[in-house]
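Contributing new complexes? Match this layout with iron/sulfur cluster.
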Amino acid sequence: MSRTTLPLTPRPAFAVRTHCPYCAFQCGVLMGEGDGQPDRVMGDPHFPVNNGQLCVKGWTSHTLLRHPRRLTTPLVRDTLAEPFRTANWEDALDLVADKLAAIKAESGPEAIGLFGSGALTNEKAYLLGKFARVAVGTPHIDYNGRYCMSSAAAAQNRAFGLDRGLPFPLADIEHAEVIWLAGSNAADTLPPIMQWFDRQKANGGRLIVSDPRRTPTARAADLFLQLTPGSDLALANGLLAVAIEEGLTDREFIAARTSGFDAVKRIVLRYHPAHVERLTGVPEAQLRAAARWLASAKSAMVLSGRGAEQHSKGVDTVHAHINLLLALGKVGKPFSGYGCLTGQGNGQGGREHGQKADQLPGYRLIEVDAHREVVAKVWDVDPASLPRKGRSAFELLDSLGPSGIRTLFVMGSNVAIASPDMGRIESRLRALDFLAVCDSFENETTAHAHVVLPVYQWAEEEGTTTNLEGRVIRRRITARPPTGVRGDIDVLRELAARLGAGDKFEFYSPRDVFDEFRRATAGGPADYSGVTYERIDAEDGVFWPCPAEDHPGTPRLFAERFHHPDGRAKFFPVEHRPAGEEPDEAYPITFTTGRYKEHYNSGAQTRLVAKLTEARPAAVLQLHPRLARRHGIATGNVVVLESRRGKAEFAAELSADVRPDTVFAPFHWGGKQAANRLTSTALDPISRMPEFKFAAVRIAAVRPGERPA
Ligand code: SF4
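Output block (do not edit by hand):
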């Protein structure tokens, strides 16, 4: 199979090959140089993921490198009531180290928390995890990927014994006969991926999309299932019930390669199509059509996004989709299987190498003694000295304050905007004794900080990331950092030295870290030990697991066996259940959040890019004309939405693309437009993923005219 069907064009002589800083597609980009600084970006036609395509965020990504609001000197202050004053690096690092040491001496290491990011390279994510466990000694480290893919990751680990966003290369998409996109608006979140669906359709394939909104992705579907928010699990169970009832399951595959089907069968047979139609709003005829398409195809995939996953039943929802595919015998076969469309740039690598509360490098588990021993040996520490499992992202932030975590160190995450029940998290941040943030710009989180350390951006240092396929790729240096800025690796080395752990952190470049990191992953589920920078260059990335330098890497998982000891995939019986908070008389409308193609996550970067803010200056509330009529709302009116946690206001946009019982707004803004002031803190019991996609709200006020400030 050829890697690309696009003609290969000569690479411009000026260009350096690297990757976009934003989402998990990690598009290959070519950076063109002006006077020694990149002044243009184009898609890399040779990178076999995006094949030269970029979205508008990628096209404009270079403009942040020399942005006038770029931080170029450390900022410090004693109290939040004071403005920041500039400081030199030595003083700022001394201050952070002194605060960490003082809190540790007073209240123990558990009073210190660290918060990482899916934007960090593998090297940084690894080093931050080691810093937390070895230099600080705290169990409390987690990252914003917990808010993103943790439910899909947990379900894949439970069902298959291993989690990798996609267990196959993206190029397999074009050969799948049927694909079900469950809760993903990929046309806006990962625009270049649509080329693969276009090719799949050109090859005669069919696309099913389930979503409460008729999104641009849904408009590309052959079958659109406009389900009630939070009913994805019932929908998948309903399709499996149809498959069983109509004799469409693959009994041979179930017997040979899986375990636990009978328990699932007993439960899903209660999901009669008429019952599922009531739960989901999807007509029985569409349910039957979807089940038949998936079952009768030679190859089929289910690819899920945050719409299905960001619920308090997210793990069970992913299980329901995996159950369906296993029952149809559509996993571990060519051009078939379940995959999660990972969101953040290094969301995949970020969840494998130790910045998550329950993990150690190589996707090892911190509660497993054998795993602790392997990593402790690489780190040259006593296994008993490694902390145990810490708090998950939201629980960590929710414990900030005098009786919990008193000092927080944040690297590359705008937690104030990205967390549910934002008002509550803001008050927790204000209750800290001390907050230090490493970032390139001031943002809504640095507003609560005592120290801000200005660090390199993506194009100013090298390092590896792992894209949504599990392809380990390399970012290269394409820009000179501004004077006064330092790298995250420097920061961690300097702090570790001040905390008395300097001998364990003698890293002077990302390559130094990568060499140790490879050893720390050797033998783990996510084994990178055979990956080298040189191989990445030569092979356009290497798929993990790759346990030796002469190992070819593993583009496709599960072809022979699943990763449980018995080699079988596991069914998990799962039941539909209500959201953490259902609409009621007081709060009768369902609120759901999502993204615009012009902005990325909390918007801390993209809201600074003029072209992006011109295109999308503000969040807009999408609501159905029938709902609008009931409240006397016209397009352009300012609507104040209220949940039990707070208020936010948006300009209204009337659209029949959203269900009449549901309203939608993106979460890229702070201030009055902060969607996360409304969102729920209900957590999935297994993944601890917050329920971003479902909150009960009411319309508190409607004003004519102007957009909210
Ligand atoms: S944001 Fe994602 S889809 Fe857009 S150019 Fe960057 S990597 Fe590609």
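Reviewers usually confirm one structural detail per submission. For this one: The chain has 24 helices and 28 strands.
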